[in-house]
Amino acid sequence: MNKVSEIKIRLDADGIVDFVKAATECDFDIDVHCERIHVDGKSILGMMNMDLNHVLTVQYYGYSVRFEEMLARYAVA
User: Fold this and answer.
1) How far apart are CA 21 and CA 39, in angstroms?
2) Under a CB-based contact definition with an 8 Å cutoff, are residues 63 and 21 in contact?
3) Domain range holding 36?
4) What is residue 1's predicted lDDT score, i.e. its pLDDT?
C-alpha cells in the first residue's frame, strides 16, 4: 500500500470540477473530508455536497504530477 499524503485545500464551484477531473484520472484512492463529512474525491456529487466555506482535507494514496499540480493551485498556506 502506498504512503498516505495529506493536504489542506479550499475550493470554489469551478475548483470542484477541476478537482474531480484530475482525481478521476488517478489510479489511487482520494478521500476528502471536512468536519464529519467524508467523501470520495472522485465523486462529483460527493464533492458538490462539501461545505465550500471551510478548508477541506485531502488524503490520497499515490502520486500523479497532474493531481499534485492541481492541489498546489488550491492549497491553503
Assistant:
1) 15
2) no
3) 5-74
4) 57
